Structures are given as structure tokens and as C-alpha cells.
Amino acid sequence: MLDPNRSGEVVTYNGGGDVLLVGSRFEVDGRHAEFMLKTLPPLIRIDTSSDKARLRLYLDLMMAELKEMKPGAMSVAHNLSHMILAQALRLYLETVSEAEVGWFAALSDARLGKAIEAMHSEPSRAWTLEALANKAGMSRSSFADHFRRRVGEIPMSYLAQRRMMSAAERLSQGREPIAQISASLGYASEHSFNTAFKRVMGLPPRQFGRGKEQLSTAT
Q: Scanning 50, 134, 162, 163, which has its CA 20 to 30 A from the CA of 117?
């Protein structure tokens, strides 16, 4: 096991050879991280027997940067690591089976993917089950049942969670008043927003914002 703090270093083992191992570590925190990570498998294997030209290109570029260490090499390698991760996840989505459950796996479903994309792009819209079903090209009952089976929760619950995650991120930044965030997410009153936020996030938005401020000050 290599020391994870040896960022950017090239380590030679047993004199080196024809294999170069490139690794990246991503640290994520907060409720957004929990929401995303719980939908991913512990290990993703990419089949190298198929043509994965784009992923191979990113890897070759990163290996060249780490070997040559030209000015700005670490910045380039850092950006390439994100591109490699995104491409690996895309390739994983191509292999997801219908038996897998969760938000990420559901993105591989062409019909549900359209509805999920709509909720993510317009979280403030007054979405109804019928409107989301239309996005997926399905009937309301079929969509609701299919969404629950693939995502693991009902569409309106998923939408509420998505809205509150967006609100939590904005509260953490501390740049907008709660009333503004509430209105931008489609809530008729700050009271209804406060109720929804506490139900999903576990505490009122003001308390959530103060907690983030205190954490930032302590850090």
C-alpha cells in the first residue's frame, strides 16, 4: 500500500518495468457525498478488451505528465484525474443491470434518466407525477412503480431530497437569505420550506446554516 500523502510522486518498485500504475484519491464530505456514494458499488471494473479510446487517452496523458513533470504538470494531472473518473463512471453506466437499485444506476435507464435530468435541471418547477411521467414517456402508474423499483424511493420524495440538497449547499455558502432560497426552489412560503428542509435534512435551515458557519470559523 502506497502512502496516500505522496501526491504526484513516481514510485519505482523492484527496479521498475513495463507497468505504470496511476492512482487518484478523491475526498468528498457532507450529505451530498453520502447521497452519491451510497449508490455506487465498492469496486468498478472497466473491461479493457473493448475499445475505451477516450479513457485510454486520458490515462496516457496523465502518465506522460507524471513522468515528464513539466511546469504545471500537477495541475494538468489533477484535471485529468477528474476526467478519468467521469469517463469511468460513464462506462460503468453502460454495464449496469436492471437489477441494480439507486439513483446512479437509474441514470442508465433511458426513460428514467430523462425524468431525473428534468428534476435536476429545474428543481424549482412545480413538478407533478404526470409531468415527470410524460418526460419519461410512460403512464403515471407505470412511471411511479418503475421509478420506485430502480431508484429505491418514490419520485416526489426524490425531488424533495434534491431540492433540499441544493438548499443545503446554498445555505453553506451563506450568501443568500433563506427567503430567497425558498422562493427560488418553488416554495410558496418560508414556513413550508422550513418544514420540508427539517423533514429531509433533520434540522431547520437556520440551524443548518449556523452549524456550517461555526465549522468554517473553527477550521
A: 50
pLDDT tens digits for range 136-149: 999 999 999 999 99
CA atoms of 52 and 44, how far apart (whole Å): 15
Pairwise CA distance, residues 122 & 29, whole Å = 25
CA 18 to chain centre: 35
The answer to whether the CB of 164 falls within 8 A of the CB of 201 is yes
3-class SS at 183? Answer: helix
Q: Where does residue 202 rank: exposed (0-12), middle (13-18), buried (19+ CB within 10 A)?
A: exposed
Q: According to CATH, what is the number of the domain 103-153?
A: 1.10.10
Domain coordinates of the chain in residue numbers?
A: 1-95, 103-153, 157-218
pTM, 2 dp: 0.68
